[in-house]
Amino acid sequence: MRYRYVMLLASSSLVLSTAAMAQTGAQTGGPAMSDTPAVQDATTVADILVTARKRTERLQDVPISVNVTSGEELASQDVRNLESLSGSVPNLHIQATPGNNAIYIRGIGSSPGNLAFEQSVGLFVDGAYAGRGRQFAAPFLDVASVEVLRGAQGALFGKNTAAGAINITSNGPRAERELATTITGTVEGDNGFEITQIISGPVTDKLLVRLAGKYSDNEGWLENTTTGDHNPGREDLIGRAVIDYLASDTLSFRLKLEGARQELTGQPMSSVGPGQSKSFTRATTQGVPDYDDTNSFNGVLTINKDFANGVTLTSITAYSAFDYDKQIDSDFTTQPLLRTVFQEDFNQISQELRLTSSNEGPLTWIVGAYAHRNEIDMHQNSHVLMGPFDGASDRLFNQTNESYSIYGQATYAFNDHWKLTAGLRQTWEDKSADQTRSTTGAVPPTWVNTPLHGQRSESQLDPSVQVQYVVDRDMMFYASYAKGSKAGGFVGAQSTGGQDSFQFEGETSQSIEIGTKLTLLDGRATVNLAAYTSEFDDLQVSGFNAATNAFITSNAASAKSKGFEVEGTLRLTPSISLSGSAAYNDAKYDSYPTAPCIYRNGVAPPANCVEDIGGTRLPRAPKWSGALTLNVDHPLDNGMRIQADATVRGRSGTYLEENLSPLSYQEGFAKADLRLGLVSADDRWTLALIGRNLTNEWTASHSFGTPFLAGSQTYVVDPGRVVSIQLGLRY
């Protein structure tokens, strides 16, 4: 199958090419590795800097598995959001659903059926924590880097990072003036346009400002055969201001303010009935529009104070809020059987204080404290019109969450080769929730009026330990252990269920990882490898039950994810480089005695069936995933440059639904992306043709049984072939 060739190319081509070149170096007497730092030039792989441990470090020095994508790569490839990025990052899956999106790393994440869920993968943007997908749902704008940290990150990042963390950093103002415009017009697959404007530079010698804005309007990639439109139509308007005030050589302030407005018409969902074929079309109920309008605001104030002994005090004060109004034709057919309206107001405030030592000396350390409070006000209304039913269920849900933690981490270098890092975080969490429900008319008997209330208090201690053996600057081996946790909570705004199913418990994880990070061929190649195993207890899951049109939230007893990852870059010539990544992941339930029954040999389970599904694979966890990219940046005689990027990315087959319905099985696939660009001699303009999924592969990120229509399956469909023309201008 095609995806196997992707995995083979991504892993073996780098290793074999590197080995062959290393052998050539040995035959000619040249060293395969150098004990001294290589000079950075056009023939070497540039150092990648990360903040994965809350200080700036080289990626090759960090003893955890981290995938890094630069903002330049995101912009040049027209990667606009995390969903688009996930296809290029092994062991990362973004599940887009009718409610909220969910993030999975190494097969583990928080399924999005419960709208009050926080993620098992923590999202951090400019130091601010986001547990809800809509907090930072706006497309990427002027991003410096996206770091995907795999495995438990509880000790240092803390709250809800049992499966990993994603760390996004925005660009800040620089000393030089910058004025840039990027215009992208999509001419096939998702017709529309996007305009990005950047203005940056110093106002005074102490005050610097960066302004960024984006407006986009795209029609979507699915043809709606009922309305004649394309879905999901999307109109986005985003603005950001980043202000730096350099009060002195030792004191600085950074204020980031960002607002976004998103309007979505239609959903990327297609229902396929018995005997029908999957396609880039959908049919909806006439007169019942799908829409999703979100307003969001985020503000972050970061203060850094440097002391004479090299210690830095950092304060991060963050505020985040959003509200949205959404309606779904939630029977996903052409009949007016069921529609659902979602509304939510959310606000969050957090404060982090930390002290960070200098990078000098054998002992480096970081200590800090974190406080967090958020509130959810959610309203959901469902109206059913089918057979004897003609009525509605109205639900109001309110939740308040307070979280406090203290943490510390220290690294001690015993000598030039051995390092030991140990970290610890203590977290206390309090939650309370209330839900009122009312029904009108004739409704299904599972829709109830019972009011619900709950309070929770819990605490977790999350340690981590890493041992490093550093041969030299170019070779490092490590072993790590880390514990992660995610607090329990409440089921938000459901029409079914009683007090006994209103709460669910917290989950914990323990990850063990061994790996190596290598710089080879005098800096012309890097190869990073990691092998891991992660065990989860009380894993929180939310599976859809088509018979009751409701998601059932509970705790799986235990699950395990194990595998390996390899990533690398090879500089073939000053103008050509090859980068690739591949991952193998085996994610299964160890024990889940209260699970809804799954399909066996293609046969649907009986209604209300419960069984232990220990030993079965987790959904949305392909065994293989990977990508391979060839990059060309070649100068012409007239000073202009030709740029080209060719990428093949793929995954093996996986189920997209908790009951492992064969209709939810996503076959293995490979997709090809291509970018061809021309850059002026003075770097003032760039013109590029960008194609994603050029072979027009049909794939889905989520799937569930269509309510009220036996044998039908509904899919959240990924974009097909998308072709764009991009013009970049710098003044």
From TrEMBL:
Claim: Ion transport is one of the keywords in the record: yes
Membrane topology listed for this record: Multi-pass membrane protein
Residue span, TonB-dependent receptor plug domain: 59-165
Subcellular locations according to the entry: Cell outer membrane
Start and end residues of each TonB-dependent receptor-like beta-barrel domain: 279-694
Residues annotated as signal peptide: 1-22
Tree of life domain: Bacteria
Family as reported in the entry's similarity comment: Belongs to the TonB-dependent receptor family.
Protein name (Swiss-Prot/TrEMBL): TonB-dependent receptor
Originating species: Brevundimonas olei
Organism lineage string: Bacteria, Pseudomonadati, Pseudomonadota, Alphaproteobacteria, Caulobacterales
